[in-house]
Amino acid sequence: MRRLREALGMAPGHVSYGLYAQYGLRVSPETVSSWEQGFGTPDSRELTALAGVLWCSPGDLMAAAATLREHRMARGLSPEDLARRVGLDASAYLRMEESGRWRGNERQSEALAQALNLSLREYVTATGQHEDLAELLRSAVTTRWQAYVRPASKLLPLPRHHLQDVLEQLHTDYQGRMVSTMSWGSSGSTTEPTAGDAGREFLERIVDHFWALAQV
């Protein structure tokens, strides 16, 4: 924000004036400076107006988006706009955004990923489903992968045939590794790590291998 402001030859007072003159927002120069220093953040309306004053997109003013709210704001969408595109009531969408847990159905999930132009990794992170995915993949590689195609398709906006291929390959790779080393999670161990740091590392290895196979 400061870099963009200075490139335009503007002081915080100019930005404050522009926010009021162009958008009717009363924001003091001190508040503008506090935003630049990371001591506060503009709300959705202020961010959109700020982008207009600084001749940029809202996404240019943000660090890498991680949450649904950050991705939505980076796209310059209001909660109502995004809810309408996804096929949800605005209040229902806002509850999910504020909780950090996405509860939409398969069609709504696909619409969400398209509306926010999310990669699969971004989608999983933004919807708060990383741990759910890790546990599902662990079950898929250690038991019958076919039983997890449907749950995975509800979790991920991927074509089912592609998801089937990825889960089958993930299962094959894991089982082959287990036969040769008796462990995929830690060298020299003869048991699968299931708790603590070793368990978390095991899960992350499964997820990383999933991303590699899915090429996303």
Automatic annotation (TrEMBL):
<dbReference type="InterPro" id="IPR010982">
    <property type="entry name" value="Lambda_DNA-bd_dom_sf"/>
</dbReference>
<dbReference type="Pfam" id="PF13560">
    <property type="entry name" value="HTH_31"/>
</dbReference>
<protein>
    <submittedName>
        <fullName>Helix-turn-helix domain-containing protein</fullName>
    </submittedName>
</protein>
<feature type="domain" description="HTH cro/C1-type">
    <location>
        <begin position="68"/>
        <end position="123"/>
    </location>
</feature>
<dbReference type="InterPro" id="IPR001387">
    <property type="entry name" value="Cro/C1-type_HTH"/>
</dbReference>
